[in-house]
Design brief:
The complex is a heterodimer of chains A (about 230) and B (about 400).
Chain A lengths: L1 E11 L4 E12 L4 E5 L6 H8 L7 E6 L2 E2 L5 H11 E4 L11 H11 L4 H14 L15 H14 L4 E5 L7 H16 L3 E5 L3 H6 L2 E6 L2 E7 L2 H6 L1
Chain B lengths: L2 H10 L1 H32 L10 E8 L6 H13 L4 E7 L9 E4 L14 E7 L3 H5 L3 E4 L8 E3 L9 E5 H7 L9 E2 L10 E7 L15 E8 L3 E7 L4 H15 L3 E8 H8 L1 H35 L1 H9 L4 H38 L8 H25 L5 H4 L2
Parallel strand pairs in B: 4-10, 6-10, 7-9
Antiparallel strand pairs in B: 1-11, 1-12, 2-11, 3-4, 5-9, 7-10, 8-9
Helix pairs in contact in B: 1-10, 2-8, 2-10, 2-11, 3-6, 8-11, 10-11
The chains are: A alpha/beta (about 230), B alpha+beta (about 400).
The complex binds adenosine-5'-diphosphate and magnesium ion.
Magnesium ion binds next to helix 1 of chain A.
Chain lengths: ~230, ~400
């Protein structure tokens, strides 16, 4: 699904150079559920942003779904993002002025999908996250866990191959967090590749693979026994 | 295509958008009326005088003391002026188009008819046998005065000539169904048997008062003002400045006991006649421009605020696949929708303002064609104003989506 070879990411400001990623290499196969952990500032978000084409890497090679993304134009990256990737953010990033239906509609419109297909996908996605009866509610009327479910529906509606989540449970209490995690596992079970950054070691251990980062590098890749986890 | 979500989110947060729309409405309403008034004034200012404007100038000569015979003196003056190289024709005159001073008289067709209101009024021009050359004017029918008909005229004489010439406008007004030639009219303004015969009709020539309600009707009488009087001179093309510079010396050679002043080309005469109109047009245009600027800056300010306020939303949209052009288009569309609302209200308001102007200030009715023109102006203005902040929005990095709380 995704191959990174010796990636470097350097943030340059007038005063300092920050090496957010140094010699970062990682391969994620289709259908995997990868959890990424590491101390704050270790480069987890940077990795996710580069993986999701939100930022460009400084050096190295990145291949996404067989496509070498180096040197792509901003428009090309935008449409690739739109078609292949779903994002889930720590703070949900829903648009407060739009109801759930229109929030989920946002990425579909950018894809130029016909109205009827959008409607079907939106209703399907919201139903899948358990909010099919609240299409015309506004985000502020929902709990945090429900809002994150809307964000997941928004990410899923376009049937992306890769789901990227940056601390999706970071703003949720344990119960809600578990609910979201279960939803992600279910989605992964249906074939979508997921990469999730988390602080929660408990959740990380439930993922198929656990990547630990320190100081911009992968220090440890632990394969989790998938079958035992599912049973737990 | 993205209109419905934009509308929905505007409806959720309507105050700022409504304020912009209101400002646009007011701007359009005022702009449409100002454009109309200014264009009306420009049309007025460019009305034809009927004379050879670039080559005509006027001046006044005043005799000092009791020296010379006014009638002979004026004839000598005219000979001297005509002798200046470059002069085509010269005459003493009462009545210069747009000159803002002159005579006005009532014209009637029957003995018992009374002159009431402006309908029967016409400007009275005193001219001699050279009238066509002096003004650079066309004869349409009949003839001009011949030299024997022209009488020297002094202040206080009552103009009751046996023959008169009309301009086209007066001729059509008095005789809408046929030729004026040979017809008898009364130009004294008093009741009485018509005693002036029309011998000619000339083409358009304006009255001295272009801002009056009847600026286009003129009757010509065969008199030569004499003594202290006004002159009109027409020169060959390109000779005007030279002749104007030479005029004083030429007249001083005839007689030094005089004052020559008010030497003025026709361009100046016309400008002075419409000074008020020009001032009004400039003032209104300045107000309209200031209003447009205030509205434009208002939009720039509000949209800049929105861009800052929506930074995270924009980053998120980018993360979800919006191209830069999608972000730009969002702001452009949003602005167009707000401005269109303003236009809808503004058109109604424009008609209301015009209604008040018509009612209380006797302006003309606003032609509806000014509304789409005004609407286009505010629409383009809105799009220009939104462009800067919207382009700034397109440069918001998609990474904002993950980098802000
Ligand atoms: N836009 C940026 N400009 C400069 N430095 C940055 C920028 N984004 C991240 N960094 C730095 O890069 C390093 C990695 O950050 P990040 O990937 O956000 O870490 P994590 O998500 O693991 O907390 C940090 O030192 C951070 O300060
Ligand atoms: Mg982070």
């Amino acid at each position: 699904m995704l191959t990174m070879k010796s990636l470097k990411k350097i943030y340059r400001t007038a005063l300092v150079e920050t090496h957010a990623l140094r010699d970062f290499s990682l391969t994620v196969n289709s259908g995997e559920f990868v959890a990424v952990t590491g101390p704050s500032g270790s480069g987890k978000t940077t990795f996710l942003n580069i993986a999701g084409l939100l930022e460009e890497h400084t050096e190295g090679q990145y291949t996404l779904d067989g496509i070498n993304v180096s040197g792509m134009s901003d428009d090309q990256r935008s449409s690739l993002r739109n078609q292949k990737i779903g994002f889930i953010f720590q703070s949900f990033n829903l648009i407060a002025d739009l109801d759930l239906y229109d929030n989920v509609d946002v990425p579909l419109r950018y894809r130029g999908m016909p109205k009827a297909e959008r409607k079907q996908r939106i209703e399907q996605a919201l139903t899948r996250v358990g909010l099919g009866s609240r299409l015309h509610h506004y985000p502020a009327e929902l709990s945090g866990g429900q809002q994150q479910r809307v964000a997941i529906a928004r990410a899923l509606a376009g049937s992306p191959k890769l789901l990227l989540a940056d601390e999706p449970t970071g703003n949720l209490d344990t119960v809600m967090a578990r609910g979201v995690m279960e939803l992600l596992e279910e989605i992964n079970g249906q074939g979508t590749t997921i990469i999730m950054v988390t602080h929660d070691l408990e959740l990380a251990r439930r993922a198929g693979r656990h990547v630990h980062m320190v100081d911009g590098q992968v220090v440890d890749i632990a394969e989790t026994d998938f079958s035992s986890l599912r049973a737990a | 295509m993205e209109i419905s979500p934009i509308l929905k989110s505007l409806r959720k947060n309507p105050v700022a958008a409504l304020l912009i729309a209101a400002q646009v409405a007011l701007t359009l309403a005022i702009l449409a009326n100002v454009l109309f008034i200014v264009s009306d004034r420009i049309a007025t200012m460019s009305m034809p005088s009927g004379i050879d404007e670039p080559n005509v100038f006027t001046f006044a000569s005043q005799d000092i003391g009791e020296g010379r015979n006014p009638i002979d003196g004026t004839l000598a003056d005219l000979d001297a002026v005509r002798a200046i190289p470059g002069v085509i024709a010269a005459a003493t005159q009462i009545g210069i188009p747009m000159g803002q001073s002159g005579w006005q008289t009532g014209v009637t067709l029957k003995a018992e008819e009374k002159v009431e209101g402006p309908e029967r009024l016409a400007a009275l021009y005193m001219v001699d046998e050279r009238m066509l050359d002096v003004y650079g004017m066309q004869l349409l029918e009949g003839r001009t005065f011949n030299a024997e008909e022209v009488i020297a005229w002094k202040t206080g004489d009552q103009p009751k000539p046996p023959v008169v010439i009309l301009n086209k406008a007066l001729s059509q007004k008095l005789f809408p169904d046929g030729s004026a030639l040979g017809r008898m009219i009364n130009i004294t303004g008093d009741p009485g048997e018509p005693a002036q015969q029309v011998v000619g009709v000339v083409d358009t020539i304006a009255s001295p008062w272009p801002r009056s309600q009847n600026p286009d009707r003129v009757v010509f009488v065969p008199f030569r003002p004499s003594g202290s009087t006004n002159f009109i001179v027409r020169t060959e093309p390109g000779e005007l400045d030279r002749v104007m510079a030479a005029i004083e010396e030429a007249l001083f050679k005839v007689d030094r006991n005089r004052i020559v002043d008010g030497i003025r080309d026709f361009k100046t005469t016309r400008a002075r006649a419409f000074e008020g109109d020009r001032a009004m047009a400039v003032l209104l245009a300045a107000i309209a421009l200031a209003l447009l600027a205030v509205t434009a800056f208002g939009i720039v300010g509000q949209v800049s605020f929105w861009v800052t306020q929506r930074t995270k939303q924009i980053g998120t949209r980018r993360a979800l696949g919006a191209r830069r052009s999608d972000i730009l288009r969002y702001f452009q569309l949003e602005n167009a929708l707000i401005v269109l609302l303003g236009i809808a209200v503004g058109c109604t308001l424009a008609m209301a303002i015009n209604g008040a102007l018509v009612k209380y200030l006797s302006f003309g009715a606003l032609p509806l064609s000014w509304l789409p023109i005004g609407a286009l102006v505010v629409l383009v203005l809105g799009q220009l104003a939104v462009l800067g902040p919207a382009l700034r929005a397109t440069r918001i990095a998609p990474a904002i989506a993950t980098r802000t709380a």
